[in-house]
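Fill in residues.
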């Protein structure tokens, strides 16, 4: 079993969005992910060495209380959280909380994408 798990060393993220073109523009032009491949119904993006696969869905994200209901988030690591929040706000990104939150690993700020999916910016304490 140990050898099998060792081969799973490069996880990726799958995101299903309501409008692929709007989401492409958001993730590439605003968040700064790199567009690797583009197809009629899907995209392959990259953030550092992390792959993000995006597919066209038919509905918006299910409504939930972030941080309380089970769900997944794309977490984008930044070196200066406050600076990145201000930059994203100037581009129209809407954050969930008025100010960053903190956990044992660092400070973070959650925001919604155009499909209603919650992602986070994270500045680690290190």
């Amino acid at each position: 079993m140990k050898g099998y798990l060792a081969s799973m060393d490069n996880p990726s993220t799958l995101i299903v969005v309501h409008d692929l073109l709007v989401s492409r523009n958001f993730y590439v032009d605003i968040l700064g992910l790199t567009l690797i491949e583009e197809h009629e119904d899907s995209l392959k993006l990259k953030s550092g060495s992390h792959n993000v696969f995006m597919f066209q869905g038919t509905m918006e994200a299910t409504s939930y209380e972030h941080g309380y209901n089970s769900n997944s988030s794309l977490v984008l690591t930044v070196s200066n959280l406050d600076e990145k929040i201000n930059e994203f706000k100037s581009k129209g990104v809407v954050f969930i909380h008025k100010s960053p939150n903190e956990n044992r690993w660092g400070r973070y700020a959650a925001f919604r994408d155009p499909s209603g999916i919650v992602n986070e910016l994270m500045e680690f304490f290190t």
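The domain at 12-57+73-124 is CATH 3.10.180.10 (2,3-Dihydroxybiphenyl 1,2-Dioxygenase; domain 1).
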